[in-house]
């Protein structure tokens, strides 16, 4: 029988790497809490129509990357329904906002999520078919100030703080405005007009986009197309006064807060529902998949999926890419535990468990050895996992004085049991 393996594009996350995942999530939760965001958890699968309408039929996600199936009815009362594993979480959050009438509170909703997303893409470093996103949305009725450029700037400032607290140095914030829905439509027409003559010299995807969704040509990553893209009209020239004023206010607030950014008039993002501010944070350490996160404003999304007017702004960070970036920055220094307890002989095992319990309850991270091991084997195991070894034999148990060896300094000391936790905490 052939052995079964994790499906292409999915992977198991194992210790010690999972510790890094947990640290990233804990830092994100702590930062989100300080900005008064609350957590939302939406289902992993939704009605396919949510993504068709909320992400956009013309996007790569909906046109070719979704895991969709016909879910057959189990009872007369049920209908066969087309379901999809969520490829992103914003549509689900906005659906929940509408379903639970959160707009009727009159308050801004500040919601964050952490969880798996699914896209049938070509797997490569930093690109998987199951991946995890950490994201947040600020959404509410216009009367709650949801359209204010201050919300955009606050979200961007929060992201800068989060990346700094994660220890991710060297990021770049790219920012642009794609204007209102009307601005976008006008720009799309301007692009379409120019693309008629140049698109035939571009890649096959761009030839299709030139007809279906010209804006997305700017997203093209094909090297040969870049010189052509550079000659295309700029969206900044299609913005109306309101959109220009809004963008200028976002920039002014970022300047006041001291958040560095780079204006990039080609940044349009893949999803159809974005309006006005769009942004991406990149990191040089990631190679081809260099986007750590992307986001922007989506003032028309709620209405596109049948809800009330509810402007919003949000982002999604690729957690897998945060992990890769941190691993590269931190260059594999394995975390060692505080102490390894080595019982001398099997008869010392119960006493060793009692000592480990004492230390663990005092907050220390302790690895418990095995009394049947020879002392040499215990030392080797301890050196791999712990910063110190504590030896527990009959003499130590009787006298209450333990022998502690510190691997970093090579020193060996005698420590009374009552002081052990304090010594190991240092
Ligand atoms: P990309 O240009 O890298 O395909 P995208 O525009 O499709 O990104 P979004 O849909 O905005 O990305 O998702 C936000 C973030 O989620 C990305 O910046 C990236 O960090 C992460 N991400 C997206 N797709 C994947 C994937 N298949 N595997 C891992 N991370 C991903
Ligand atoms: Mg993509």
Summarize the structure.
The protein is α+β, with helices and mostly antiparallel strands and 426 residues long. 39% of the residues lie in helices and 21% in strands. α12 links the parallel β12 and β13.
**Helices and strands: which structural class?**
alpha+beta
N-to-C CA distance = 53 Å
Number-wise, the strands total 16
CATH level-four homologous superfamily name of the largest domain = Bira Bifunctional Protein, Domain 2
CATH classification, class level of the largest domain: Alpha Beta
Form type: elongated
Q: Beta-strand percentage? A: 15-25%
Strand order of the largest sheet: 1-5-6-11-10-9-7-8
Largest sheet: 8 strands, mixed
Structural domain count: 2
Unreliable stretches covering 5 or more consecutive residues: none
* CATH architecture verdict of the largest domain: 2-Layer Sandwich
Radius of gyration: 27 Å
**Number of helix segments?**
15
CATH level 3 topology of the largest domain:
BirA Bifunctional Protein, domain 2
Give the integer mean of the pLDDT values. Answer: 94
In which range does the helix fraction lie?
Answer: 25-40%
Listed once per kind, the bound small molecules are: adenosine-5'-triphosphate, magnesium ion
Pick out its properties.
8-stranded mixed beta sheet; BirA Bifunctional Protein, domain 2; 426 residues; binds magnesium ion; binds adenosine-5'-triphosphate; 5-stranded mixed beta sheet; 16 strands; Rossmann fold; 15 helices; alpha+beta
Q: Any overview of this molecule?
A:
The longest helix has 18 residues, at 17-34. The chain has helices at residues 17-34, 48-56, 60-65, 90-99, 149-166, 181-198, 204-212, 226-230, 241-257, 301-304, 319-330, 349-361, 375-385, 394-399, 417-425, and strands spanning 38-39, 45-47, 68-71, 81-85, 109-118, 130-139, 171-177, 262-263, 275-283, 291-297, 312-318, 339-343, 366-368, 388-392, 401-406, 412-416. Helix 1 packs antiparallel against helix 5 and helix 5 packs parallel to helix 9 (241-257). It contains 15 helices and 16 strands. It has 2 domains: 17-180 and 240-330, Bira Bifunctional Protein, Domain 2 (BirA Bifunctional Protein, domain 2), CATH 3.30.930.10; 339-425, Rossmann fold (3-Layer(aba) Sandwich), CATH 3.40.50.800. The model has no long low-confidence stretch (mean pLDDT 94). The protein is α+β, with helices and mostly antiparallel strands and 426 residues long. The chain has an 8-stranded mixed beta sheet with strand order 1-5-6-11-10-9-7-8, with helices on both faces. It starts with 16 loop residues before the first helix and ends with a helix. Adenosine-5'-triphosphate (ATP) binds at residues 88, 119, 121, 126-128, 131, 133, 270, 289, 291-294, 316, 318, 320-321.
